[in-house]
Amino acid sequence: MLRIEVDIFSGRPNPTWFLTDAEATKGLLDAVGEAPDAVAKTGAGFNGLGFREVRVEVISDDERARRRTPKRFALASTAAKNLRASGEIARRLVETM
């Protein structure tokens, strides 16, 4: 299970939801595992007004350990080494909302 938050500095609460579908969770974590340079540390990128990043928190330790992903990471962050791949994975994730 994943907790997803779209960090948008807008004066309103950030959209947040849980991804509970096991197949969708596996697909996302597999994509992150295949492109480790697509993830960034949360809060490390753009810090101004507007869209900042998509924050992901892995709730199930079994899933994280199996795919060697960090417990918390950011997608579509300007701090990602591969911003294109990061944005694509984030887009797929936001479509699950």
Structure write-up:
- This protein is of the alpha+beta class.
- The protein contains three helices and four strands.
- A four-stranded antiparallel sheet has the order 2-1-3-4.
- It is globular and about 35 Å long.
Summarize the structure.
It contains 3 helices and 4 strands; from the N terminus they run ββαβαβα.
Q: Give the integer mean of the pLDDT values.
A: 89
Helix percent reads 25-40%
Helix tally equals: 3
Low-confidence stretches: none
The biggest sheet, with number of strands, parallel, antiparallel or mixed sense and barrel status, is: 4 strands, antiparallel
Beta fraction: 25-35%
What's the N-to-C terminus distance?
A: 14 Å
The strand count comes to 4
Q: Helix/strand-derived class? A: alpha+beta
- Rg over CA atoms, rounded to whole Å, is 12 Å
Describe the global form.
Answer: globular
Task: Reconstruct the topology from this structure.
Elements: E1 2-9, E2 16-19, H1 22-34, E3 50-58, H2 61-67, E4 72-75, H3 83-94
Antiparallel strand pairs: 1-2, 1-3, 3-4
Labels describing this entry:
alpha+beta, 4-stranded antiparallel beta sheet
